[in-house]
Design a protein that fits this description.
- The complex is a heterotetramer, with two copies of chain A and two copies of chain B.
- By secondary structure, chain A is an alpha/beta fold.
- Chain A is built from six helices and eleven strands.
- In chain A, strand 1, helix 2 and strand 2 (49-52) form a beta-alpha-beta unit.
- Classes of the chains: A alpha/beta, B alpha/beta.
- Chains in contact: A-B, A-C, A-D, B-D, C-D.
- Chains A and B meet through helix 4, helix 5 and helix 6 of A and helix 3, strand 9 and helix 4 of B.
Chain lengths: 234, 219, 219, 234
């Protein structure tokens, strides 16, 4: 009785994406980003979009590719330090930017998926992040009211997935992917390995298939490393 | 002589208590992991989803799917656990991570910190810093006492956009260890080897309390 | 003749659409799972932490660690997934579970439902019902049209403490299928085999709209 | 460098429990309840306590044992239908009871552990659950403000645990345990199997050890089934 969420490829998976939409994209830095979906957005020249993503990629990879083509109207992120073109577009006013604390970003996506329209957090109180937001004290400590985030499409990347849309991520490539999967009106999951429903241990799934509308096996993952740090043997 | 970055990290490492979960920011704080005293068990949290973060991998063993919050390839200690960003910040916001060590551009007398933005010039974003400073019970800042022009970064009031208010508990700079007093103002705790109290006084714009003899750090 | 419980479940099963995630309440709703038409793929959610709930286990294969929200031993379908209560209600509150089928003591003209408490007499608690009725896009109620004393449970206003307001979309009783109209009031959709419109009218206290010929259910 | 959270037995694990405290207890019905901790609370006759637990056990097992001894002053639960003694004590006014929607209960525990002091939910709007609570509209739909729950001790039960306090639950015995583990000032985990740190897959842990202060291997699990339902072979 399991659902069948598999689509043939990234072209089909992105059916319905349009200019001006809001997208969520999983990943932290270049780790766990939906490389196939990003490439397809670039190929289709979808523009005027709002992207909710912790980072903005680097100049020539990840969301940096969309930035380079001026496809992004607005970014909602927490840290964009690895991208010169981003900083240039932002400082020149070409790009709208909403920078928000990383924990609030994660929680706002989860809230969007979980039907929680708003919640209070201490993060950002007393800073410009709090401007225009309600402040309320709980247990003697000031908190600000943050609202849920949702998206027309959420693009997530997992390690393994099954035909019912259940997902398992690998290591720190998990990051924002599970919350964004929850918050997409249409959530598109690309996976490195796609297996029949029933092959994944039901007790060990990170994202239940109910949050995923379309799934496909991604190709040609580059998985670029931003900071290759090593230690010497011995 | 003023401390170098390694020495700042070494000095901060002495503040870490047995059994603590610790979040280390990018830069000098990352080095603290190398100097935890023997017999002190701590676990390092990386806000992108690791508890029990280990050292860099051996060459050839890097895994693109296993990085820290500074986007560096890392490894896992025994007993480590991986999780998503919402769970990570649940740990932070819920005060389960007891100690946060991070860098700063400015700190004020009442423990305000600025470290994420220079208007019109540098905007990298706050990342997880705002959640961390709004939450951790203990926040230690690693920073230079003054900027390259010799201007103090230990201030009466921060001039840059704030990351958090009333949160920094201790500062370790190249010149000194300072406590931020609950009622506001800094208290000189230790001085770098060969650095005089006068020197520190001159390099500190915020109100500085000096009581009795100020010991010199020993390395 | 009025429907029995099995027939109520059978009739409700026809409302389930292909591809839906469905939460079934305790009692009659649980039986709906047995009558899903061929070619209709659905997954059942149990709010204690299952998606893809299967039938009861074979004797000897019961697992105390695998129960449904009614505390009954169950099994998993292929592709099932297990999760905690917060995630479960994230699915429900976030409207990912599209259809909720549950029992009721009373339903009102504007779709209010009461099913968790009889003041001073019966207080079992609401369990997940308040989250479910506040959230699901489509809510179908399975209930008896009248109580044992013959008093209508399809009312102008509920008399018992409410579980949720303005939420029920459809009711299947032993006598009829009723829609709750967006503007308030009930609309008669079908009648049980051999049950007259007049009978249903008499058993319904709330405002009942009857348009044209009312078809009889076929089993 | 992993933490070592192991204590010898349930007696040591409950060091510091006192009359009048607030406890959280994992479990749904009798599934996944901390049987050893409950037995020890009964043995010690700890009384006047507030228990936060989805259910109240049955008359002669689970929290029913504490109810029977009048050890509980107040229950915060969502469903208590399987316990006659509970209903009797509640209707007679001997027991204070706060009944809250199951999803709100789960989310309030999570919020308590996650440093979210309050959040908005649609559950309970228009019912007596909403009495005295702030109502606010989001996207045209009324929501009520619910606050975080925490406890002096959280007692949770897991399937496997390691010496660093990391936990894996089995099937639907997971239920409220992970959120309650987050929300206890002191969280005590009892496990069926206790292994050295490093033996559990770091990618497959349900409760990170940071949420657990004490862990021990439980004994004599009864795992009673409330409704043994089966189907015929053939």
């Amino acid at each position: 009785m399991a659902m069948y969420k598999v689509v043939a490829n990234v072209e089909v998976a992105l059916d319905g994406v349009q200019n001006g939409m809001t997208f969520m994209l999983g990943g932290f830095g270049l780790c766990g980003i939906p490389e196939n979906a990003i490439a397809e957005l670039v190929r289709r020249r979808i523009n005027g979009v709002t992207c909710i993503s912790n980072n903005a990629g680097v100049d020539d990879f990840g969301l940096g590719l969309l930035l380079h083509n001026r496809q992004i109207k607005k970014m909602i992120s927490s840290y964009v330090g690895e991208n010169d073109e981003f900083e240039r577009q932002m400082l020149s006013g070409e790009l709208e930017v909403d920078l928000i604390p990383q924990g609030s970003l994660a929680e706002r996506c989860r809230a969007g998926g979980a039907g929680i329209p708003a919640f209070y957090t201490p993060a950002g109180y007393g800073t410009e992040v709090a401007e225009g937001k309600e402040v309320r004290e709980f247990n003697g400590k000031p908190h600000i009211l943050e609202s849920a985030l949702t998206a027309d499409f959420a693009f997530v990347k997992a390690w393994k997935g099954d035909t019912a849309g259940n997902l398992i991520y690998k290591a720190t490539a998990r990051n924002f992917n599970p919350m964004m999967a929850m918050a997409g009106k249409i959530t598109v999951a690309e996976v490195e390995e796609l297996v029949p429903a029933g092959e994944l241990d039901p007790n060990q799934i990170h994202t239940p298939g109910i949050f995923v509308q379309r799934i496909f096996k991604g190709v040609n993952y580059e998985k670029r490393i931003e900071q290759r740090t090593v230690r010497q043997r011995g | 002589m003023a401390l170098n970055k390694t020495q700042i990290a070494q000095r901060i490492a002495r503040e870490v208590k047995d059994g603590q979960y610790v979040n280390l920011g990018i830069g000098i704080p990352t080095l603290v992991a190398n100097y935890i005293p023997d017999g002190i068990n701590v676990e390092f949290q990386s806000e992108n989803g690791i508890l029990g973060m280990g050292p860099f991998p051996f060459e050839g063993e890097e895994d693109a799917d296993l990085i820290n919050a500074g986007k560096q390839t890392v490894t896992l200690e025994k007993g480590a656990v991986l999780f998503d960003s919402a769970t990570s910040f649940a740990m932070i916001r819920g005060q389960h991570v007891q100690l946060t060590i991070l860098g700063a551009m400015e700190v004020s007398e009442r423990g305000d910190i600025a470290n994420w933005k220079i208007p019109g010039r540098m905007v990298k974003g706050m990342g997880g810093a705002m959640d961390l400073v709004a939450s951790a019970d203990n926040i230690i800042v690693a920073m230079m006492h003054a900027n390259k022009a010799g201007e103090s970064k230990i201030l009466k009031e921060c001039t840059l956009p704030l990351t958090g208010v009333n949160c920094v508990k201790k500062i370790v700079t190249d010149l000194a260890v300072l406590d931020v007093l609950p009622q506001g103002g800094f208290k000189l705790i230790e001085r770098a080897p060969g650095v005089s109290v006068e020197e520190i006084k001159n390099a500190t714009q915020g109100k500085l309390t000096i009581e009795g003899d100020i010991p010199e750090m020993v390395f």
